[in-house]
Design brief:
392 residues, alpha/beta, Rossmann fold, Dihydrodipicolinate Reductase, domain 2, 2 domains
């Protein structure tokens, strides 16, 4: 194979971004061969392009024989179904975030990946951001010493009421399976586990429909405990403006702050615990170096992950984001929700069957009302939103 024929299932906002990358020749050795969407209006912009096959369902595209690989860009619950169907058909698969709504479904999707010759990746594009790559490297190399605390404030996900009114599936237990944790924050939750590993205990505090007329969470504060005794706080919201995206990492060797595409390291000359034990001064602090860490800006993001997927198929290149790792961000989101709903600390690994039962109960008891736009009418639009102001 010299060129990968890619099919995209779901050409809404994020699917359209991927079609543009493929049609704009940003991805080498790949071409957009087919698209599928259950909404015929979503296919209309591609009507004049005869080189792209169009299908009304993902299954039709999977069965067509026209593609070597499938990108799954549907609403969340369908990630499991479409991804598993494509894997069982022998196709390579790149699934959008989150890989599934809940841990049990993520396990089912991963179980469908029985042929390891098939490339199975996830669209965790923020792993390409140089600042996060550097933070992971510093921790892995022991440069920060033993970690003691992490704090991530990610309230830079503001969404208007109109955003939620544009789709029936959005911000519902039955359509999306959650709110900010399932839609926006899979990126940060993936980075959290990628950089720090998984916590062993989680206490979540979720507010449901605090800022919007929705039934799912639009504000979350979570406390995390890690096996080595380190703690963490994770704060997110879609109702706060202006928002913040600030990651603070503290260890025995100092503190790293990542904010506004910049990375700063205040490095302790002496480890905190050593200085604490040996200092003869009551108010002294360890002397520090202020270290500038050149790390670039944003990285290749979606296009880089897609190119990496293609290169893995053609040349066996190591994946930036193997889909199997996507279960961890799902588990973190589920843990925060379960903890809040139960009003208690939950242990990680999470009891996936218990959470699945809770989610089904939420769906059954849902009394979701139609979400109205600013003019009081339900927004029914096939238009694709401009994602330039979002890093989703």
């Amino acid at each position: 194979m010299k060129q990968v024929r890619i099919g995209i299932v779901g050409v809404g906002n994020i699917g359209t971004l991927h079609t543009r990358n493929l049609l704009g020749d940003k991805i080498k050795h790949a071409r957009l061969a087919a698209i599928a969407d259950i909404n015929p209006a979503k296919l209309e912009p591609y009507a004049s392009n005869e080189s792209i096959k169009k299908y009304n369902t993902g299954q039709e595209l999977i069965d067509s024989g026209e593609v070597d690989a499938v990108m799954v860009c549907t609403p969340h619950y369908n990630h499991t179904i479409t991804g598993a169907d494509a894997l069982k058909a022998g196709l390579h698969v790149l699934v959008e975030k989150p890989i599934s709504v809940h841990k049990a479904d993520a396990q089912r999707l991963i179980a469908a990946h029985t042929n390891k010759k098939q490339v199975f990746a996830a669209m965790f594009n923020q792993r390409t951001t140089p600042q996060y790559q550097k933070a992971k490297q510093l921790i892995a190399d022991g440069e920060l010493g033993k970690l003691t605390r992490m704090n991530w404030i990610i309230t830079d996900w503001f969404r208007s009421d109109f955003y939620y009114a544009r789709g029936d599936w959005r911000a519902t237990w039955s359509g999306e399976g959650g709110g900010v944790l399932l839609n926006q924050c899979p990126h940060q939750l993936d980075l959290l586990q990628w950089i720090f590993g998984m916590p062993v205990r989680v206490r979540g505090f979720c507010n449901f429909g605090k800022y919007h007329d929705i039934e799912v969470e639009d504000e979350v504060t979570a406390y995390l405990e890690f096996e080595n005794g380190a703690t963490g706080v994770f704060i997110t919201s879609t109702g706060e403006a202006p928002g913040t995206n600030r990651l603070e990492i503290c260890g025995e060797r100092g503190k790293v702050i990542i904010e506004k595409n910049e990375m700063r390291w205040t490095r302790n000359e002496i480890e905190t615990s050593t200085f604490r034990r040996t200092s003869q001064q009551p108010f002294a602090k360890p002397p520090v170096w202020n270290v500038e860490i050149p790390s670039g800006k944003e990285g290749g993001q979606h296009a880089e992950v897609l190119q990496n997927f293609v290169d893995a198929i053609l040349d066996g290149k190591k994946l930036i984001a193997p889909a199997e790792e996507g279960i961890r961000s799902v588990e973190l989101a589920n843990s925060m929700l379960m903890s809040s709903l139960l009003g208690q600390v939950v242990e990680v690994p999470l009891d996936e069957k218990k959470f699945e039962r809770m989610l089904k109960k939420l769906i059954k008891e849902s009394e979701t009302k139609p979400k109205a736009s600013s003019n009081g009418k339900r927004a029914k639009s096939s238009a694709v939103a401009d994602l330039s102001d979002s890093f989703a």
